[in-house]
Design brief:
The complex is a heterodimer of chains A (506) and B (409). With 506 residues, chain A is α/β, with parallel strands linked by helices. Helices cover 33% and strands 27% of the residues of chain A. Helices cover 78% and strands 0% of the residues of chain B. At the A-B interface, helix 10, helix 11, strand 20 and helix 13 of A face helix 9, helix 12 and helix 13 of B.
C-alpha cells in the first residue's frame, strides 16, 4: 500500500510580479491523510489550484505525476474525471436545492435529459449513510447547518468516484463537535482506502489525523515529515513561521481597576421566531484593564449576545440592562451604543466590518466622521492624519493609507477594523473571534494590540472558539452554552478540560 | 548621473504613467468619449452641432435628464434604483398644468407645491424600501405604473396648456445680462449679440476649475496620494477650462445664459459638494458599499435610504416643472420611458449597479454624452430606430468597459 498516488515535482508558479510557488514538491502516498500547513498567503491554495487544473498545464513549471503517469490537467473537469476533487473553504452548494439535487448537480442521473428521481434519491440515501447523515434526500440544503453541509460536500465528492479528496480548511466554520465528526469521517474514509489531503490551520487536528505533514512557507516547501517521526504542534509552527514560537501569547501584567461595564438579566429572542429565547438571563461585568473571555461552542449564542448588546443589532424582545460606571445606558441603536462607550469588532470582518472597495482611510474614519469634519464638511487633511496615526500605531502594512482594504491581508484588514473602533474612543471593546482567518505571525501582533488596549485601561471582551487563545489572553473567562452562562472562572483556574466539562454537563 | 540610471528612471516614470492611466482609464475615457463624439458630429453635421443655437438647444433638451441624473446617482450609489422618475416627472408636470391653467393658481405656490409633492412621492416609495426592505426595483416599478395612471387621471387623458409666459421662462428664458461691456465685445468678436454675463461666467468657471485643480494637486502631493502625471493634469484641466470658455462664449453670442443652465449648474455643484465633501455624502457611499458594515458603524442606513428617495422625488418634480414649461403643455405621455435615459446616463457615467461607486460629475457627463448622441444623430437625419439601437450599444459598451477594466485592474 505504500505506493505514491501523487507527486508534484518542483512546481513553480509566477504571477506578474510575484512568485507564488517556488520549487514546491509534494508526495502523497496512496491511502494516507496528508496535511498541508502554512500561513495565509504561503501558497497552499495556489498549489491546490495547480493540482486541480484551475491553472492549466503549461501555466506553471514542474511536473505532476498522478497514478503513475505524467498528468497535464487542462481544467477542473479534467482533474475531476481522474478522481481529484477539492472541497473548498467556501462551500459550493446551492442553498435552495435539495440534498439530492446538489449531490448530482452537473452529474444528474438522467436519460435523455429527464431526471430519474427514484434512482437519484436512492443513490443519495446510500451516499448520505456513508458520511453519517440521516436527513431526507429532499431536504433543502439551506435547512442544514454548516457541519452537515460540509458532510454533504463530501458525499457529493463520493458520488463522483473520488480517488484523491482535498479538503481546504474543512473545519474552519464548524463547531467543536461537528469538527470531531468530520475528522472521524476522514479517518473512516482512510480506513476504506481513500487518499486525502487536508489543508488546515488547526494544528491539533492535523496532529490527530495526519500521516504526513508538508509545511509550506513563502511559496517554498519547507519540510515534510511522517507521523512516525513525530508530528508536534511546535515543530509545525516553527517551520511555518520560520522561528520558534514557544510563547504564542505576548506577556502582560494585568492592572485591573474599577468596574466599567455591567450587563444584567440580558435576554434576547430570535429575530424571526419571537418565542425562541436565544439568550437567557445573561449577566457579566468588565473592569478597566481587564480582558474577559467568553468561551463556548459555535451556536452557543456568543455573537448574538454581543450584537444584541451593541445597538440591538440582532434579535427582538430584548430585555435586561447595560450599566456603564454604575449608571444604566441606552444601547437601543448602534449610535447610542457607541456613545455609551462600546465598540464591537465583528466576527465576519469582510461582510460586516469593512467596506472592502474603500480605502484604509475611509474605513478607519467611518464610525466617527464628525470628528474629522467641521460643520459636516469633511476635512481631508484631518482624515489622512488620523489614518496615518493608526497605520503607525497598529503597524498596518500597506504602501499607503489610500490603498483599498480589499488588497490587504487578513491580519492587516483586522488592524483596520480595530483602528476604526479605536478612533471612536470606546471604554469597552467587544472582540468577536478577533484572530479568525489570520496567520500565526499576525495573530501575535493582534494579541499584542489587545494587551495594549488593556494596559491603556480599556475593558476588553474577547469571544473566541479557540480555547488556548482564551486561556492565553484572558484574565477571567465566562463559559456560555445554549444561550446562558454556565460558568465563570479566573484564568488561573481555567483549563480546556474544565471549560469543556461545564459545557458538556449542562 | 550615469546614463543607466537615467534610462531606468525614465522607464520607471513610463511605468508609473501607465499604471496611473490604467487606474483612471474610466474617468479619462468618459471625457475623451464625449470629446470624440462631439468632434465626430461637429464634422459630419458640417459644424451645426456647435452652433450657438444648437448648443443652447442641447442644454435645454437635456436639462431635465441631468437634473434627475443627480438624484438617480445618489439612489444608485446607495445601492438602489428608481424606475418611477419618468412617471413622477410627468405627474408633477400635469399637476402644475392643472393648478396653473385650470385653477389659475399662482406660479410660486404651484412650484413650491409641486416640489413638496415630489418629495412626498419619493418618501412614500422610500418608506417601503428603507423600512420594510422591499426591493426598490419592485416598489418603483409599482410607482411607475401608479403615477403614469395618476397623470392620465389628472389630465383626463387630455393635454393641458398653454402656460402663462412667466412659467415658461423657467425652461426657455435667459438670465438678463447684468454686466456692462457686451457692446465692446460685439465689435471685438464681430458678432451680432454678446452677453457679457455668460462670457464672464465661462471665464470664472474656467478659473475655478484651474484653481481647484491646482489646490487638489498640491494637497495630494502633501499627503503622498498617487499623483496624476503632470502632462495629464495639464491636459485635463486645460481641456475642461477651454471647453467651458468655448461653450459659454458660444452661448454669449446667442441669447446668453439659459435659466435652466443656471439651475442645472447650481444643482450639480451642490450635489457634487454634498456627495464628495460632506459627512452625509460619505455615509451614502458607505451604505452602498456595505450596508451591514455601515449599520454596525452607527450609520442610520434606513433613514439615509429614505432620504435618497425623498431627494429623488424632489428632483423629479423640479425636472417635471422644467419639462412642462419647455413643452408649454402637460401631456399624459410626458416623461414616458425617460427613467431609462436617466439610469443609462448614470451608468455611462461610471456608477456601479451594486452601489457604493459613482460620481455626480460622471452622471452629468453621461447625460450629456447621451444628449449629444441624440442631438447629433437627429441632425444627421438618422431615424429613431437606429438612434435607439446605437444608444443601447453605447450603454452596453460603457458598462462592459467598466467590468473589463475592473477585472484587469
Amino acid at each position: 500500500m505504500q505506493d505514491t498516488l501523487l507527486e508534484m515535482r518542483s512546481i513553480t508558479k509566477t504571477f506578474p510580479g510575484v512568485k507564488a510557488l517556488d520549487d514546491v514538491s509534494l508526495k502523497v502516498q496512496t491511502g494516507e491523510i496528508h496535511a498541508i500547513c502554512g500561513e495565509n498567503g504561503a501558497g497552499k491554495s495556489t498549489l491546490m489550484k495547480v493540482l486541480s487544473g484551475v491553472y492549466p498545464a503549461g501555466s506553471y513549471d514542474g511536473e505532476i505525476h498522478y497514478d503513475g503517469a505524467l498528468a497535464q490537467f487542462r481544467d477542473i473537469s479534467d482533474s475531476e474525471a481522474r478522481g481529484i476533487i477539492i472541497i473548498h473553504q467556501e462551500l459550493a452548494l446551492v442553498p435552495l436545492l435539495s440534498i439530492a439535487e446538489n449531490l448530482f448537480l452537473g452529474n444528474e442521473n438522467a436519460k435523455g435529459g429527464v431526471i430519474d428521481w427514484r434512482e437519484t434519491n436512492q443513490r443519495t440515501e446510500t451516499l448520505l449513510r456513508k458520511v453519517g447523515l440521516r436527513d431526507a434526500p429532499t431536504t433543502l440544503v439551506e435547512k442544514l447547518g454548516v457541519g452537515k453541509q460540509q458532510l454533504v460536500e463530501i458525499a457529493k465528492a463520493l458520488a463522483k468516484d473520488v480517488r484523491l479528496l482535498i479538503l481546504d480548511e474543512p473545519t474552519s466554520a464548524l463547531s467543536e463537535s461537528d469538527s470531531q465528526a468530520l475528522l472521524d469521517l476522514m479517518l473512516e474514509l482512510k480506513a476504506q482506502g481513500m487518499t486525502q489531503i487536508i489543508i488546515s490551520h488547526k494544528l491539533n487536528e492535523v496532529r490527530r489525523i495526519a500521516d504526513t505533514v508538508t509545511v509550506i512557507r513563502d511559496g517554498h516547501s519547507v519540510s515534510s515529515f511522517a507521523a512516525s517521526e513525530g508530528i508536534t504542534e511546535d515543530r509545525i509552527v516553527r517551520d511555518m513561521v520560520g522561528r520558534s514560537m514557544e510563547n504564542r501569547y505576548p506577556p502582560r501584567t494585568p492592572r485591573i481597576g474599577e468596574r466599567i461595564m455591567r450587563v444584567s438579566d440580558w435576554s434576547v429572542a430570535h429575530p424571526e421566531h419571537a418565542d425562541r429565547q436565544v439568550i437567557r438571563n445573561v449577566g457579566f461585568d468588565v473592569r478597566a484593564g481587564e480582558v474577559v473571555g467568553i468561551a463556548g461552542l459555535m451556536g452557543a449564542g456568543r455573537t448574538e449576545l454581543a450584537m444584541s448588546i451593541f445597538g440591538q443589532s440582532w434579535g427582538q424582545n430584548i430585555t435586561g440592562t447595560v450599566e456603564m460606571h454604575g449608571k444604566p445606558v441606552d444601547v437601543s441603536n448602534v449610535g447610542r451604543a457607541i456613545k455609551a462607550g462600546l465598540a464591537y469588532v465583528t466576527e465576519d470582518r469582510k461582510s460586516l466590518g469593512l467596506i472592502l472597495d474603500d480605502t484604509i482611510t475611509r474605513n478607519i474614519t467611518l464610525a466617527n466622521l464628525p470628528e474629522v469634519a467641521r460643520a459636516s464638511v469633511l476635512n481631508d487633511h484631518a482624515e489622512t492624519e488620523v489614518a496615518e496615526k493608526y497605520r503607525k500605531d497598529l503597524g498596518i502594512r500597506t504602501p499607503g493609507v489610500f490603498q483599498k482594504v480589499v488588497n490587504l491581508s487578513g491580519g492587516n484588514q483586522q488592524k483596520v477594523v480595530l483602528s476604526k473602533w479605536l478612533f471612536v474612543g470606546p471604554e469597552v471593546l467587544i472582540l468577536d473571534e478577533p484572530t479568525r482567518g489570520i496567520d500565526v505571525g499576525a495573530k501575535y501582533e493582534i494579541y499584542g494590540l489587545i494587551n495594549d488596549l488593556a494596559a491603556a485601561g480599556k475593558g476588553v471582551v474577547m469571544i473566541s472558539s479557540e480555547m488556548p487563545e482564551l486561556l492565553g489572553m484572558c484574565d477571567r473567562v465566562y463559559v456560555m452554552n445554549e444561550g446562558a452562562f454556565v460558568g465563570e472562572m479566573p484564568a488561573s483556574e481555567a483549563s480546556q478540560e474544565r471549560i469543556m466539562s461545564l459545557i458538556v454537563n449542562e | 548621473m550615469s546614463v543607466a540610471e537615467n534610462t531606468s528612471q525614465s522607464a520607471g516614470a513610463t511605468a508609473r504613467i501607465g499604471s496611473y492611466l490604467k487606474a483612471h482609464l474610466r474617468e479619462y475615457g468618459l471625457l475623451f468619449a464625449l470629446i470624440a463624439i462631439m468632434a465626430f458630429f461637429q464634422i459630419v453635421t458640417g459644424g451645426t452641432l456647435l452652433r450657438p443655437i444648437n448648443l443652447t438647444n442641447l442644454l435645454l433638451q437635456n436639462s431635465y435628464i441631468v437634473i434627475m441624473a443627480l438624484g438617480m446617482l445618489v439612489v444608485i450609489v446607495a445601492g438602489h434604483i428608481d424606475l418611477s422618475v419618468g412617471s413622477v416627472m410627468g405627474f408633477v408636470g400635469a399637476l402644475a398644468a392643472v393648478m396653473i391653467v385650470n385653477y389659475e393658481m399662482s406660479i410660486i405656490v404651484t412650484m413650491l407645491t409641486c416640489v413638496v409633492v415630489g418629495a412626498i412621492i419619493g418618501g412614500a416609495q422610500g418608506y417601503w424600501i428603507a423600512y420594510w426592505k422591499i426591493p426598490s426595483f419592485i416598489v418603483t416599478l409599482a410607482g411607475m405604473l401608479v403615477f403614469r395612471g395618476l397623470s392620465l387621471w389628472l389630465l383626463e387623458g387630455q393635454s393641458v396648456g398653454p402656460f402663462p409666459r412667466e412659467f415658461q421662462v423657467i425652461a426657455t428664458g435667459f438670465v438678463p445680462d447684468i454686466l456692462p461691456g457686451g457692446e465692446a465685445f460685439k465689435g471685438l468678436f464681430a458678432v451680432r449679440n454678446f452677453n457679457m454675463l455668460a462670457f464672464a461666467t465661462g471665464i470664472v468657471a474656467a478659473g475655478w476649475v484651474v484653481w481647484s485643480g491646482l489646490r487638489q494637486r498640491a494637497q495630494n502631493k502633501a499627503y503622498g496620494i498617487e499623483d496624476e502625471p503632470r502632462a495629464f493634469f495639464v491636459a485635463r484641466i486645460a481641456i475642461i477650462a477651454l471647453a467651458l470658455i468655448f461653450i459659454l462664449y458660444k452661448l454669449a453670442t446667442f441669447r446668453g445664459l439659459p435659466n435652466v443652465l443656471l439651475t442645472m449648474g447650481v444643482l450639480t455643484i451642490i450635489y457634487a459638494f454634498i456627495t464628495e465633501r460632506t459627512v452625509l455624502g460619505r455615509r451614502i457611499y458607505a451604505l452602498g458599499g456595505n450596508e451591514k458594515a455601515a449599520k454596525l458603524s452607527g450609520i442610520k442606513t434606513e433613514r439615509l435610504t429614505f432620504l435618497a428617495f425623498v431627494n429623488m422625488g424632489m428632483l423629479a418634480a423640479i425636472a417635471g416643472l422644467v419639462f412642462a414649461a419647455r413643452l408649454n403643455t402637460a401631456t399624459p405621455k410626458a416623461g414616458f420611458a425617460l427613467e431609462l435615459d436617466v439610469i443609462a446616463a448614470v451608468f455611462i457615467g461610471g456608477a456601479s449597479m451594486s452601489g457604493g461607486v459613482g460620481k455626480i460629475v460622471g452622471a452629468v457627463v453621461g447625460a450629456f454624452l447621451m444628449g449629444v448622441l441624440n442631438n447629433g444623430m437627429s441632425l444627421m437625419g438618422i431615424g429613431i430606430d437606429y438612434q435607439q439601437m446605437i444608444k443601447g450599444l453605447v450603454l452596453l459598451a460603457a458598462v462592459i468597459f467598466d467590468v473589463y477594466n475592473k477585472k484587469k485592474g
